[in-house]
Amino acid sequence: MTHKNLSIKIKDLRKRRGFSQEQLAEESKLSLRTIQRIENSESIPRGDTLIKLTQALGVTPDDLLEWTDLEDKGYLTLLNLSAIATLFQPLLGIIIPLVMWILKREKIKWVDDTGKKLISFQITWTLALYAVIMIATKGLVISFNFNLMHLLTNIIYDFSIVGSTLLLLYVYLVAIIFINVRRSQKGLKNKYFPAIPFLK
Question: Which of 85, 118, 138, 188 has the smallest C-beta neighbourhood within 10 Å, fewest atoms?
Fold first, then answer.
């Protein structure tokens, strides 16, 4: 890793931890000037400085020296596609992307951003789904085992406003997932909307 890349990684890790330069200096017991010089590529952290810095950032020296933002469009595609689990069980559409995001958010480029947007969208979508179900059942039945087959059966036998709304929710979900899969494959940032920003 080059000197400049190391300073970029340290700065990026500091921001991911939510530290200001002052907070990192305090946590690492290094001077603010030292932190500034490292981040401006004026100094290379070695020995005790490197150890203090990595401890404050929650990584090992080896992790920092070997850490790179890999670009893995395949993983981003899988992350986006994991939301399809919603078709079988709405909560799976949150849990699977959440696990994938946690595992690789600091290892692969764009996973952190995509994961936050996707999970926020999935939570928003699931809340909308259950709101429609609660309205349809007048709040008497909340089914966390609601699945697509049950939805389609109800729509075929009783094509109502509620059934139409549920079908539109699912069609929109599938469409937005595949739009974002294509965006990932082209190297573009994902856009999931509407979404309440649960993860920032």
Answer: 138
d(CA 94, CA 92) in angstroms, rounded, equals 5
Which 8-state DSSP code applies to residue 70?
Answer: B
Q: How does pLDDT run across 155-165, given as a tens digit for each residue?
A: 545 556 777 78
1 pLDDT higher than 50: no
The tokens of 83 are what? 């939301």
In DSSP notation, 84-141 reads GGGGT-TTHHHHHHHHHHHHHTTTBTTHHHHHHHHHHHHHHHHHHHHHHHHHHTTTS-
Is 21 within 8 Å of 32 (Cβ atoms)? yes
With both helix axes pointing from N to C terminus, report the angle between 47-57 and 21-28 in degrees, rounded to the nearest 10. 110
**Dist CA 76 CA 66 (whole Å):** 21
Of residues 90 and 148, more confidence is placed in 90
Percent of the chain at pLDDT above 70? 80
